[in-house]
């Protein structure tokens, strides 16, 4: 990745040493100065598609905290006219005149350093004025361009938007671009009268531009103090749908005019969840308005800019005729996540990116509470915790994972932190804390923390102080325990524990020991170090109390960090099982002795299986398949557990099972004995497929969870050719193809479209593929376009897949940059597509890096589905050689490369250890 910062040629003679390289090389800004307010004025020109650009100036009110002769701030890819820079003192004593004598840069940290004529004195206030200009870029970061096609006039409509998190405000205007440098903003946008201007705050005043006809200046009200990454503005010709919010902020949902009919659900759900958070946090939403806007081009899923939340179209727009229930639930989760940030992240912000998880983990966790409140029938919390744990367990069982709270010294490292550890593991440890603290002290501590740090910055230790105080006040935690000690063990060290449970059946006790759980089985036990403070909840076969998640015991760590084994007593005799970790309240795995596993297997495979809580059934499936993978259990035991799924009728254990069995499928389908695995999967799936009436459209009579279960089961059933799944899917597709107007009339039920499209493309012809491609090009619904992109990769024809990848990465093609990832993942995750996508990546890596630049996150996300299918030493060595050869291109994705290589190593180990014996186990369980 190339780092570059360029500045205009110097015109004025008094800047004698302009743009020399600065000796200041620390990754954090100096602490001598604090911005207090920005007056930001930007003229955006969207009329000429060949020259989309912006010009502006920023006046920064700066307070000096220490004497200094330098003003160090951030600027990247901006042309700064240095002859127009001014600096003057506006408050305090001493000499009033000042100026800038020279400038220097540090391209590694994007620093732009102004050396002053006179020393800036502590206590004084100054105003710095910087003029700047740049092209509206195509990279989806900073201040960038987007467009959509007006179907009526068949013309391209241009708009502008911002994406500043984590460190791209510096690409839009010179600023102190760190989260700890909060200031208020007065934004004024200049644009043609045919457009609308939006920013974080309501419009204050509109007046004509001084010289440009039909242009206006739109000034917005001054913002509350906030970090630069939360500033947002857009110039567009969108429409909006207003929401009614009694006694609350003005709430509007924006989209391009030909998609405004898809805003109804977001406009209804958004205000409800905002009001829930006001009550939950005990703090009213502090701004007078909130806008949410669906952008055609957007790199992230959504962004929580204060008062102007930006989304991909797929995460804000919903069409009942085209979107599935799964699409709707995903949309609700994203809106709830972004609106939770308005408090956790915006009102109180982390001091530095080390604690990014405080933003993302909290928003993920609290979003689950918000969705659960508004749609209790969705059971979103249960599914959310399972997804959080499955996703983070997989990543965090690698040596190359990282702590939730991690040191950050470069912008590329910030990008790497936006992963399952910050979001999903962060969410899981917060839920653990919520459950062991109890509702009263958790809510009390949160409210105290938010009030203490309103409009300020905080670190995780500040949160622990507020929560400890509340827990002791309410009596929820013993006086000698504190939240910091417990939570540091989860946030400051990598990984998670497995609790090994050895029962003494005659004494009625069990000894618990813990060690770090790792997928790499060749790492000796002596190196699986780490100690976690574990709240231990459990129940017995006689009690079956799965509602009490409070800890009955704690696993503690010594002062030197060693694990202290724990014994629990008053347990039943040898005829009854024990289950730890009620409702997966804590992110650990539990491995029992052989007898306890057998007792659990006996209950699961009996009519009494529902006496075990549904989340714990999912936990047993998840844990035992992991233990079989790494050799702590054999596949005989694991398959006896999964056999019970023939009786299971709830989505949560099925999701757990299918996520894990998919990993086996991706390896075994490339081996000669795959038929046995296929037979076993058919045995598990046939009863549930028939129970749910197969592919028949019975959705209207089903509960929400049944709809999702059917969607999941039918999808996998067609992959394994269960019953009539494939011919029925093909029949749906043929009916669609025979429609006179297939873009208006689609007989395929929205919840089955992903399955039907994929099956038809996999079993179909080039004409089928071209038909679906045409539907993609003509569709006006984001979720439908996403479904089609995810299924066009199902073809078995190598040449079609190669053509598809070329279209996916064509900068002038029909697939938008942010969606190319979907296309690649669709190809690489299928059997025939895997070698095609692998070759494409290896041959075109330089082009792909340039295509995504500077979005290193996108490159990182190409790798997981690839590494899941490499299981031979030869393929592993080939990938290693590719990485070594492409080191320069793959800068910024080192973490993803390490994790991919480690996952491949564990696949190779799996083949050596398990391949010979798994087929005996499958044979015995067929």
TrEMBL record:
It is a lipid-anchor; GPI-anchor; Single-pass membrane protein. Residues 265-490 form the Peptidase M1 membrane alanine aminopeptidase domain. Keywords: Aminopeptidase, Cell membrane, Disulfide bond, Glycoprotein, GPI-anchor, Hydrolase, Lipoprotein, Membrane, Metal-binding, Metalloprotease, Protease, Signal, Transmembrane, Transmembrane helix, Zinc. Its EC number is 3.4.11.-. It catalyses: Release of an N-terminal amino acid, Xaa-|-Yaa- from a peptide, amide or arylamide. Xaa is preferably Ala, but may be most amino acids including Pro (slow action). When a terminal hydrophobic residue is followed by a prolyl residue, the two may be released as an intact Xaa-Pro dipeptide. Substrate binds at residues 165, 301-305, 857. CDD domains: M1_APN-Q_like. Residues 35-230 form the Aminopeptidase N-like N-terminal domain. InterPro entries: Aminopeptidase_N-like_N (IPR045357), Aminopeptidase_N-like_N_sf (IPR042097), ERAP1-like_C_dom (IPR024571), M1_APN-typ (IPR034016), Peptidase_M1 (IPR001930), Peptidase_M1_aminopeptidases (IPR050344), Peptidase_M1_dom (IPR014782), Peptidase_M4/M1_CTD_sf (IPR027268). Zn(2+) binds at residues 337, 341, 360. The record marks 423 as: Transition state stabilizer. GO terms for biological process: peptide catabolic process; proteolysis. It comes from the Eukaryota. The active site is at residue 338. Residues 1-18 form the signal peptide. GO terms for cellular component: cytoplasm; extracellular space; plasma membrane; side of membrane. GO terms for molecular function: alanyl aminopeptidase activity; metalloaminopeptidase activity; peptide binding; zinc ion binding. It is an enzyme of class 3 (hydrolase). Binds 1 zinc ion per subunit. Belongs to the peptidase M1 family. PANTHER family: AMINOPEPTIDASE-RELATED (PTHR11533:SF253), PROTEASE M1 ZINC METALLOPROTEASE (PTHR11533). This is Aminopeptidase. The gene is Dere\GG12023.
């Amino acid at each position: 990745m190339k780092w570059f910062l360029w500045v205009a040629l110097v015109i004025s003679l008094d800047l004698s040493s302009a743009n020399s390289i600065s000796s200041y090389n620390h990754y954090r800004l100096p602490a001598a100065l604090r911005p207090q307010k920005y007056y930001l004025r930007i003229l955006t020109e969207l009329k000429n598609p060949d020259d989309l650009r912006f010009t502006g100036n920023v006046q920064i009110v700066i307070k000096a905290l220490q004497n200094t002769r330098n003003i160090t701030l951030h600027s990247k890819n901006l042309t700064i006219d240095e002859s127009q820079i001014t600096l003057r003192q506006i408050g305090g004593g001493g000499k009033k005149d000042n100026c800038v004598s020279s400038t220097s840069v540090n391209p590694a940290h994007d620093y732009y350093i102004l050396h002053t004529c006179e020393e800036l004195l502590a206590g004084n206030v100054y105003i710095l004025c910087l003029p700047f200009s740049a092209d509206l870029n195509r990279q989806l970061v900073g201040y960038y361009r987007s467009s959509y096609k007006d179907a009526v006039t068949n013309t391209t409509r241009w708009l502008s938007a911002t994406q500043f998190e984590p460190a791209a405000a510096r690409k839009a205007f010179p600023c102190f671009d760190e989260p700890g440098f909060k200031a208020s903003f007065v934004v004024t946008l200049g644009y043609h009268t045919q457009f609308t201007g939006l920013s974080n705050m309501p419009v204050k005043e509109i007046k004509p531009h001084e010289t440009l006809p039909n242009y206006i200046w739109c000034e917005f009200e001054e913002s509350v103090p906030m970090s630069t990454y939360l500033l947002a503005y857009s110039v567009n010709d969108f429409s909006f749908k207003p929401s009614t919010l009694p006694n609350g902020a003005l709430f509007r949902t924006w989209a391009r005019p030909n998609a405004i009919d898809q805003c109804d659900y977001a406009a209804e759900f958004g205000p409800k969840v905002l009001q829930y958070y006001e009550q939950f946090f005990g703090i009213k939403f502090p701004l007078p308005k909130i806008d949410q806007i669906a952008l055609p081009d957007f790199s992230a899923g959504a962004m929580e800019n204060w008062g102007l939340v930006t989304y991909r179209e797929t995460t804000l727009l919903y069409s009942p005729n085209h979107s599935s229930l799964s699409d709707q639930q995903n949309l609700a989760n994203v809106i709830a996540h972004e609106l939770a940030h308005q408090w956790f992240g915006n009102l109180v912000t982390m001091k530095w990116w080390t604690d990014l998880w405080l933003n993302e983990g909290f928003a993920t966790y609290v979003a689950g509470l918000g969705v659960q409140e508004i749609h209790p029938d969705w059971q979103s919390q249960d599914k959310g915790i399972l997804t959080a744990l499955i996703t983070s367990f997989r990543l965090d069982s690698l040596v190359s994972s990282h702590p939730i709270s991690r040191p950050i010294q470069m912008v590329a490292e910030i990008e790497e932190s936006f992963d399952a550890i910050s979001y999903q593991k962060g969410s899981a440890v917060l839920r653990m804390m919520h459950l062991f603290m109890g509702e009263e002290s958790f809510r009390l501590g949160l409210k105290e923390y938010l009030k203490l740090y309103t409009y300020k910055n905080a670190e995780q230790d500040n949160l622990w102080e507020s929560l400890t105080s509340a827990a002791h006040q309410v009596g929820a935690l013993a006086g000698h325990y504190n939240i910091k000690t417990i939570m540091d063990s989860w946030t400051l060290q990598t990984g998670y524990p497995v609790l090994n449970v050895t029962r003494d059946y005659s004494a009625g006790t069990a000894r618990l020991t813990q060690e770090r759980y790792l997928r790499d089985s060749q790492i000796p036990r002596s190196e699986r170090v780490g100690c976690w403070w574990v709240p231990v909840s459990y129940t017995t076969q006689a009690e079956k109390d799965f509602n009490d998640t409070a800890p009955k015991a704690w696993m503690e760590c010594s002062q030197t960090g060693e694990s202290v084994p724990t014994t629990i007593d008053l347990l039943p005799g040898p005829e009854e099982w024990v289950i730890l970790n009620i409702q997966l309240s804590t992110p650990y795995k539990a491995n029992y002795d052989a007898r306890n596993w057998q007792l659990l297997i006996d209950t699961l495979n009996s009519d009494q299986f529902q006496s075990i809580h549904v989340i714990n059934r999912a936990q047993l499936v998840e844990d035992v398949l992991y233990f079989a993978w790494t050799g702590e259990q054999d596949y005989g035991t694991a398959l006896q557990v999964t056999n019970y799924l023939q009786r299971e009728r709830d989505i949560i254990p099925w999701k757990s099972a299918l996520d894990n069995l998919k990993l086996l499928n991706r390896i075994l389908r490339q081996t000669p004995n795959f038929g046995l695995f296929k037979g076993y999967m058919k045995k598990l799936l046939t009863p549930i497929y028939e129970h749910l009436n197969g592919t028949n459209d019975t959705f209207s009579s089903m509960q929400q969870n049944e709809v999702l279960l059917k969607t999941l089961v039918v999808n996998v059933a067609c992959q394994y050719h269960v019953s009539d799944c494939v011919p029925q899917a093909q029949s749906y597709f043929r009916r669609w193809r025979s429609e006179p107007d297939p873009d208006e009339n689609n007989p395929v039920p929205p919840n089955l479209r992903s399955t039907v499209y994929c099956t038809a493309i996999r079993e179909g012809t080039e004409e089928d593929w071209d038909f679906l491609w045409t539907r993609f090009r003509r569709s006006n619904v984001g979720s439908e376009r996403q479904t089609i992109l995810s299924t066009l990769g199902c073809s078995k024809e190598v040449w079609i897949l190669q053509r598809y990848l070329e279209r996916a990465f064509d900068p002038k093609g029909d697939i938008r940059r942010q969606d190319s990832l979907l296309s690649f993942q669709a190809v690489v995750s299928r059997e025939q597509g895997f070698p095609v996508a692998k070759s494409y990546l290896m041959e075109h890596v330089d082009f792909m890096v340039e295509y995504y630049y500077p979005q290193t996150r996108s490159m990182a996300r190409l790798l997981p589905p690839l590494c899941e299918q490499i299981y031979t030493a030869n393929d592993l060595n080939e990938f290693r050689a590719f990485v070594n050869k492409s080191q320069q291109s793959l800068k910024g994705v080192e973490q993803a490369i390490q994790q991919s290589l480690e996952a491949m190593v564990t696949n190779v180990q799996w083949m050596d250890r398990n391949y010979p014996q798994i087929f005996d186990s499958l044979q015995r369980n067929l």
